[in-house]
Write a structure and sequence with these properties.
The chain has about 140 residues and is of the alpha/beta class. The radius of gyration is 18 Å and the shape is globular. Strand 5 and strand 6 form a beta hairpin. Helices cover about 25% and strands about 35% of the residues. Strands 1-6-5-4-2-3 form a six-stranded mixed sheet, with helices on one face.
């Protein structure tokens, strides 16, 4: 019984590390997306985030082009993004947000957040973290 408080404390610390993903899925019945303009965010320091995002959309049959402001008038669908790094022995992706809009109106959002602690996926690569988020945004599930 003496070990019970230690076990409870250890469990609480271990469980405090988690990842949350919140997605407002794109309604595919209202949006047939063939091309997305991605607005480059120069503040993002996660070096492979833009590449992983482009590949995620291409995996779903959606072509992408990356633009600085001002965006071309031909951009019907636009993706805005942000991503932040945390640091624990080495840098890792700890927050990302994707916002997809059509002609200025938001049609889907996705947020990834690592909430600290000992989550086993903390140091996973950007692709492992963001691909499932993109899949949920565009289809509601991972592609088969």
């Amino acid at each position: 019984m003496r070990n019970t408080p230690v076990a409870l404390i250890a469990s609480a610390i271990f469980l405090s590390g988690c990842t949350s993903v919140q997605v407002s899925q794109v309604d595919k019945s209202q949006h047939e997306i063939n091309h997305v303009c991605i607005e480059r965010n120069p503040k993002v320091a996660v070096s492979d985030f833009l590449t992983v995002t482009e590949q995620g959309f291409m995996r779903h049959g959606i072509a992408t082009s990356v633009h600085d402001l001002p965006l071309p008038a031909s951009c019907e669908y636009v993706l805005n993004y942000t991503a932040e790094r945390g640091w624990d022995l080495k840098p890792y992706l700890d927050y990302a947000e994707l916002r997809l809009s059509r002609n200025g109106s938001t049609i889907g959002t996705a947020n990834y957040r690592h909430s600290g602690g000992f989550a086993l996926n903390k140091w996973a690569g950007t692709e492992a973290k963001i691909n499932p988020v993109i899949d949920q945004l565009l289809t509601g599930k991972a592609p088969e």
